[in-house]
Amino acid sequence: MSNAESMYSMPCELWWLIFKLMSPVDLASFSRCSTMFRELGTCFKEEMYTVQRALGKFLLDVEMGDYQDLQADTGLLVAGSGVLGFFNHDDDLRDYDTFCELSQCGTVGNWYIDRGFEFQPSAVQMSVFANEFTHTLDVQRSQNRVVAIAIDEDVRDCVYDNVVAEWTFKRGCGIVRLLATDGIPLKGLLSVHSTCCMNVLSHRAAYCCFPKLTLEQQATVLIDLCAPFTEPQMKTVKMHQMQGFSVQFKPSGRVVCNAKSALTFLYSRYLGDKHCYKIPLKYLGKRTPMDDYIEANTWSLAYTRKLNTCDYYPIDVPGTRTEYIASTSFASKLETQLIVLRGQIQSGLIT
């Protein structure tokens, strides 16, 4: 039997093992080689990139449709190492961070509790979630400062910028953190400590913001971290190194000045752009799926002497339930257009 004949007769199980070693981009390129490879690649993607696999580490199958409805209603985003594992086929990664605007967190937390999750309060939190949430909301509204975040030596308890409170829920082996954001949940994702963690699930799709860097080059760039590192931050760096990532403290000038690079500061970024890998997810909810407005937000990367960061400006759009963010280079132009829009609304030209 020739090598070609042997390859075509390989069992699907062996193909699956090979495909798991490929990045999504490599798999797409492989699928274009022949009709058989395209069929095999399609079958693999239909089996691996599903809602059940994306959420199944902390939710039951019968809950996933309701959870997508919850995401659509509240803007809840799912991130954490479990989402990274969805993209790189590592089912041992099970930590989930769910970002939600503070005012909507009561609805999300009660959803978890109604389905058997137990609230795991920290030493400084009240034992009943409803009481803890009400207290946090009152303090945040009156003082407008960060509250109720437990800080200890566990690397999972890194404090994100734009996150004003954190609550943990557990059911069996499934653990999920609810992180309340000051503004849209996307702000929380953009403040995570490294690019390999910038992966997120909305109610309609899964996004990997830096697929070439994360999935192909097995590298990560630190975000909003500067030396000297604290002990938890150093644990974060070592954790990524143990996962096989090459940690970059500063990308090279050649990379950040390259307009074709995902790390460039020359152009704005948004979820679903040409640098991002997007996997549409089947909507299992009971209602007609809402549009995914998360892709309407933009940001840009910025590099200072001390750190790398995501740069953006909050935008108040008339008639919307929540704010949007825009890269600072685009924000001034957008604000000018919004001033005109507000004037037209006030004059009755637009209703």
What distinguishing features does this structure have?
351 residues; alpha+beta; five-stranded mixed sheet; 14 strands; 17% strand
Question: Layout of helices and strands, plus pairs?
Answer:
Blueprint (H helix, E strand, L loop, with lengths): L2 H6 L3 H8 L4 H8 L3 H14 L2 H5 L8 H11 L2 E3 L1 H8 L7 E6 L3 H10 L3 E2 L9 H15 L19 E9 L2 E8 L4 H4 L9 E3 L3 E4 L2 H6 L2 E3 L9 H12 L3 E3 L4 H4 L20 E4 L19 E4 L4 E4 L1 E3 L8 E3 L1 H19 L5
Parallel strand pairs: 2-5, 8-9
Antiparallel strand pairs: 1-2, 3-4, 4-5, 6-7, 7-10, 11-12, 13-14
Helix pairs in contact: 3-4, 8-9
Detailed description of the structure:
The protein has 14 helices and 14 strands. It is of the alpha+beta class and 351 residues long. Among the domains are: 3-48; 51-221 and 271-289. The strands form 5 sheets. Strands 1-2-5-4-3 form a 5-stranded mixed beta sheet. Helix 8 packs antiparallel against helix 9. The longest helix is centred in the last third of the chain and has 19 residues, at 328-346. It starts with a helix and ends in a 5-residue tail after the last helix. Residues 1-5 and 145-159 have low confidence and may be disordered.
How many β strands by DSSP? 14
Strand order of the largest sheet: 1-2-5-4-3
- What does the overall shape look like? globular
pLDDT averaged over residues: 85
Q: Uncertain runs with pLDDT below 50, 5 residues or more?
A: 1-5, 145-159
Strand content: 15-25%
Listing every helix as H and every strand as E from the N terminus to the C terminus, the arrangement reads HHHHHHEHEHEHEEHEEHEHEHEEEEEH
CA-atom Rg in angstroms = 21 Å
How can the largest sheet be summarized? Answer: 5 strands, mixed
Q: Which structural class best describes the helix and strand composition? A: alpha+beta
How many DSSP H or I helices? 14
**How far do the termini sit from each other?**
72 Å
**Portion in helices:** 25-40%
